Amino acid sequence: MAARVPADALGRRVLCGAEYATVRYVGGVPPTAGIWLGVEWDDPQRGKHDGTYEGKQYFKCRHPRGGSFIRPNKANFGVDFLTAVKNRYGLNDEQDVERGTEDTLVFGKKTVEFVGMDSVAEQQRQVQLNQLVDVSVRECAVSHAGQKEEISRTCANIRHINLSKNLISSWDTVTAIASQFQNLETLNISENKMKFPSTSTYISSVLPRLRILALNQTEITWREVLLCAPGWPALEELYLTSNNITVLERPDNVLQTLKLLDLSDNQLLDGNQLHLIAHLPRLEQLILRNTGLSSIHFPDAGFGCKSKMFPSLKRLAINNNKISQWSSINELDKLPSLQSLQCHNNPLMDTEKNPDTLRQLIIAKISQLEVLNKSEILPAERKGAELDYRKIFGNDWLAAGGSWDPDKNKPSEEFLAAHPRYPSLCLKYGAPEEGELKAQQPLTLKNQLLTLTIKCPEKPEQKPVEKKLPDSMTIQRVKGLLYRLLKIPGSELKLSYKSSKLEGKEVELDNDLKPLQFYSIENGDCVLVRW
User: CAP-Gly domain location, by residue (predicted)?
Assistant: First the structure.
């Protein structure tokens, strides 16, 4: 018996075994008999041709070998939402209730007296479905909503739904399901290739309490996002990764409640696209991993000023991009609320061999940053980074017209463009003194070695030892060295140091992951060891 082909089969999503495809043709393929489905596979390696058979093109594919013809009985057109829920949670007719003797019912191990078997079973299912709050029907072949309003009558208390990787073919199907839950807060429909509304006359169904929406890998465009967005009046988090979004448009009267936006793995045309979403008033987190960004610029603000763009943005992720110039990092200081930045895997990160130096430069350039690449910036680290920055570029400041005399202090525009925070650092700590700006010796290995005296104040019988250590050596490695030198367990050591410049003050070396240079230890200083 031939399988029945749905009247709306064209454009529908289907499963054939474990492979996903979209129906592009329904009909005959002479000289063979019967009905065929022409499908375009999600995985083009599964196909055989581009929709052409014996010189006639029946349908088109994106990939020259992405298509096949299959018989309808090989295609799974999916199930309705409620059937998928019942199957997933064991609430369908076969799994929920077993027949006992002629006058009893068995629920698990409990036997109940017969009181109209069908009605009791149905009541039991209704109670269990109504208790569901968080539902996942990922990869359950959901393709349609089912009978009108049946979902709302059966499981109205659901608040969180994972509908990812199913057979949903259109946004209308999504709204037909989701609009039946008045308290729906989270909806994940990622990995469903579907059609979205494309005209401004589209009237979106409203999901009044939806806060989190994931539309990753759905082939949606930004324009289609904006057409659907009137239906999300309370949306706070929107995930749009891997959708081939290249251009953005300014959201007018939509997405105004959005706090998080993830556009990762979309190759944006250029950095100017960000200006079009820069006035979302509540946006706190923007994720732009692997978006092809090569530069960032906020043209509405000058050197040392704050931009009106992204007024609430606290967390920004720009890892895995093409940013190669420090000017983009300078621009980030214009964001008035920025607290956290992720920026690894950009060409800029290769400009400094020492990752600690790179981190210090970024910290010094962005004044209000509190977390960099998921690592907290402590006040002492910020102070050290800013003081070092002020010293390192002090000679450049003088050469560009900077001066200790306020009346003559007029650094060039070029210097200010490269170091927009330098004037504010001078105000914060004072201009660098002449002694700080003496020409530094070339950084050879010899010059990076510190000659330190190591003492054990609580063990007077232990003679002081003089050692040469590289300033890049971490405290943890210093402890390991002392363990071997002094024959004591490294984990129990407590280190500090004294310097003649600190007038007898003792500074604790309390972070095992930091190098000696982090604590500004110099030649001739004394390291104190206690255990």
Answer: 27-71
Six-digit token string for 217: 């890998």
Going by C-alpha positions, the residue among 363, 371, 370, 309 that lies closest to residue 334 is: 309
Who's near 15: CB < 8 A, 6+ residues apart? 21, 75, 76, 78, 141, 167
Neighbours of 6 (CB within 10 A): 16
342-to-216, 307, 317, 371, 513 alpha-carbon distances in Å = 21, 20, 5, 8, 20
Backbone angles phi, psi at 294, to 5 degrees: -115, -15
Domain boundaries, the chain: 12-74, 392-432, 449-530
**pLDDT above 70: percentage of residues in the chain:** 89
What whole-number distance in Å separates Cα of residue 243 and Cα of residue 194? 12
Query: What CATH number is given for 449-530 in this structure?
Result: 3.10.20.90
Buried-exposed string 495-522: b where 16+ CB fall within 10 A, e elsewhere: bbbbbeeeeeeebebeeeebbbbbbbbb
Q: Is the pTM above the cut of 0.85?
A: no
What single-letter amino acid sits at 298?
F
Q: What is the tens place of the pLDDT at every residue in 125-180?
A: 666 888 899 999 999 999 999 998 899 999 989 999 999 999 999 999 999 999 99
Q: Just give the CATH number of 12-74.
A: 2.30.30.190
Q: What is the DSSP letter of 262?
A: E
